[in-house]
Amino acid sequence: MAGLRSASWLAALVLTAVVASIASELLIPLILAALLAILLRPLVRGLEKLRVPPYLGALVVVAGTSAILIGTLQLAQGPATRVLEDLPRAAARVADELHALKRSMGDGKSLSQTMEVFEDFQDGAGSQLQRVQIEPVPLDTQLLSIGATVVVTGLGVVLLVYFFLVHGDTLFRRLIEITPTLTDKKRTVEIVRAVQSDASRYLLTITVINIGLALAVAGALWALGVENAVFWGLVAGTLNFVPYLGAAIVTGALLLVGFGDTANVGPIAALTPAIVYVLINAVEANGLTPWLLGRQFAINPLVILIWLMLWGWLWGVPGVLLGVPMLVCAKVVLSRVERFQAWAVLMGDRETLSTPLERSTVS
Fold it and tell me: What is the rounded CA–CA span in Å between residue 320 and residue 307?
């Protein structure tokens, strides 16, 4: 019986992964809209307390949020284009410096002989083989294509968020009505309310933290004279939704920017932007975020990395960005269902000593 149950769970997980991969174009906007609706729900309820109708409050909140996001994208568009144009040149400068360093550390004679052999082989091959050169797609064309996709998807997400905010409670009430027993009704209400409150608190807190991180990084890089400091602040704040991996990506990019800038003389000046970012991120990740969120949302780093690898494999970049919020919501649900609480404990870090049910029983 236990073996059959385990096989059923494994089959369900595989089926879920297959469906998630096939229906990614549908599920990604849907999940993003649901998370945004959870984040914006307290604002709509605050307007309801001021006697603003839900449909009007949702319209105001969605329109205001959309205006802020569009303004931020407009602000980042110019610097993003310049960064995309500068990064290849910076990478080439870094490669040249590494090549020169390797040449100075190695045997110059043997290296020159190797290069001569390679050049002779290349010349000989070139006389016999026809070279094919593929013209790269212009950057403007790539950005235009990406922008069109983002606009279409964004409009769909905006509509979904609005209808989630206006009609979400009605759908929830219908769900309670079709639940068979009173016990199941109570459990469903508890789980949904917990997801709404806990996930909303997490998303709101982490969003405010990441905005603060973006401002701090942009200000520090601007003080250091780094070009496009505002853009790098926005990148740092956005990628901070991806624990560990996001910080590693930003650190690597700032190392490339530092070493690729010809104005930086010496390794200390080149390393300074990345070092400053690492220090700011360390204060946020090890001090501010744990203090504001507490143990309730603490998740084992290994679980986070495996989860991000899974959703990155299934959905690419959107899966990585949405992975942690989905994991937090999953943990909230698992911690409220008695037979699944062991999984919530397994997901927690080593400081999590008991499940919510056990803590309430002890108290």
Answer: 9
The DSSP result for 171-202, as a single string, is HHHHHHHH--SHHHHHHHHHHHHHIIIIIHHH
Q: Which residue has the tokens 């568009």?
A: 77
Nearest to 246 by CA among 323, 147, 331: 323
Give buried/exposed letters for 113-149 (b at 16+ CB in 10 A, else e): eeeeeeeeeeeeeeeeeeeeeeeeeeeeeeeeeeeee
pTM: 0.73
d(CA 344, CA 361): 17
Instruction: Look up tokens 């699944």; give the residue.
Output: 340
Give the span between the Cα atoms of 33 and 222, in whole angstroms: 34
pLDDT in 10s for each residue of the chain, 363 residues = 556 666 776 787 788 888 888 888 889 999 999 989 988 988 898 999 898 998 999 999 999 999 988 888 888 777 777 777 777 766 776 676 667 666 666 554 554 554 454 455 445 545 554 555 555 556 556 656 666 777 788 889 999 999 999 988 888 788 788 878 877 788 778 878 877 788 888 888 899 999 999 999 999 999 988 888 888 999 999 999 888 888 999 998 888 888 777 666 667 888 889 999 999 999 998 888 888 876 667 788 888 888 889 998 989 888 888 988 888 888 888 887 777 778 788 887 654 444 443 333 333
Sign of CA dihedral 315, 200, 307, 1: negative
